[in-house]
């Protein structure tokens, strides 16, 4: 099976347990790359001033010079596809991915500990988020939603709505409200830390892949077919924005000066300030999977980090 994930086509692990066991070696160390800049990347964050990027074959790339150079993490105990990474501060973070895997680091991404895995159960995690060092959530395919209260060592299932939709992204707003973005324009909102959930809609039927809470409290979310939405009331009502593209949008970030970058398929880059966006495309037309913005934006793709 093939699934559109983070703006590009990724071969998923929807397969028999025997194939998964052979093709997705969860508990083998991450593959070492001769040239780290060519490693396929699906997600990236800042851990203090350090860039931490994760991707295929358990790769974790680190950059301490805002993306000019990269090196692989010293120890990653898995070779499965990593799809999401989240840091609370410059030291403490988590990564997650296929085989239901969750990793944890306390040294800024140099060394990672395996906390959870479900090899062969066809339950990939697509997004992970933590409120603090103990409470976190992760979501994924087939309505997968799990919660931890001990930093990721133990997890329990969460019921988010009466649905069988895929869940693609979890985020927290400036007010602490939780949002889960899903298939066919579905949005789920919790104002009580995940105890209860309200089922909402973006107003469209395009799957939603990523979201960000801006510094002023505005929330932006994006997804398939160029869909980009804004909420000014903490995620209750959504307005579609003119994105001037039909390419699927995979990730968003906001720079220190308030500029918003949105990236997606075929090298698509949108730039704006909350609602007015202009479009450009990289000449290589590479699928852009993630973007970070410090002084200048840093882009990531299935062909590696880009500047």
Explain how this protein is built.
It is a single chain. The protein is mostly beta strands and 307 residues long. It has one domain (2-306): Methylamine Dehydrogenase, Chain H (7 Propeller), CATH 2.130.10. Helices cover 2% and strands 44% of the residues. It contains one helix and 29 strands. The protein has one helix spanning 17-23, and strands at 2-5, 8-11, 41-47, 50-55, 60-63, 71-72, 82-87, 93-97, 102-105, 113-116, 125-130, 136-140, 144-148, 156-157, 167-172, 178-182, 186-190, 198-201, 208-213, 219-223, 228-231, 239-240, 249-254, 260-264, 268-272, 277-281, 288-293, 297-301, 304-306. The chain has a four-stranded antiparallel sheet with strand order 3-4-5-6, with no helix packed on it. A four-stranded antiparallel sheet has the order 7-8-9-10, with no helix packed on it. The two termini are 32 Å apart.
């Amino acid at each position: 099976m093939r699934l559109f994930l983070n703006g590009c086509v990724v071969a998923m692990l929807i397969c028999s347990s025997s194939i998964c066991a052979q093709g997705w070696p969860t508990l083998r160390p991450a593959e070492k790359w001769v040239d780290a800049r060519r490693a396929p990347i699906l997600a990236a964050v800042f851990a203090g001033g350090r860039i931490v990027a994760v991707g295929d074959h358990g790769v974790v790339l680190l950059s301490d010079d805002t993306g000019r150079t990269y090196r692989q993490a010293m120890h990653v105990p898995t070779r499965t596809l990593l799809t999401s990474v989240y840091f609370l501060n410059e030291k403490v973070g988590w990564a997650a991915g296929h085989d239901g895997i969750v990793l944890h680091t306390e040294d800024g991404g140099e060394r990672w500990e395996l906390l959870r895995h479900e090899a062969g159960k066809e339950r990939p995690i697509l997004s992970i988020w933590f409120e603090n060092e103990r409470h976190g959530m992760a979501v994924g395919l087939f309505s997968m939603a799990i919660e931890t209260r001990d930093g990721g060592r133990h997890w329990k299932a969460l019921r988010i709505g009466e649905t069988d939709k895929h869940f693609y992204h979890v985020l927290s707003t400036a007010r602490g409200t939780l949002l889960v973005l899903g298939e066919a324009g579905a949005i789920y909102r919790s104002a009580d830390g995940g105890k209860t959930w309200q089922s909402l809609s973006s107003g469209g039927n395009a799957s939603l892949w990523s979201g960000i809470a801006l510094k002023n409290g505005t929330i932006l979310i994006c997804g398939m077919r160029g869909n980009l939405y804004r909420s000014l009331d903490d995620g209750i009502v959504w307005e579609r924005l003119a994105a001037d593209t039909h390419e699927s949008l995979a990730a968003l970030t906001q720079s220190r000066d308030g500029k918003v970058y949105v990236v997606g398929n075929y090298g698509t880059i949108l730039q704006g300030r909350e609602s007015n966006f202009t479009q450009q495309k990289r000449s290589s037309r590479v699928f852009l999977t993630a973007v970070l913005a410090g002084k200048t934006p840093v882009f990531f793709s299935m062909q590696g980090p880009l500047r």
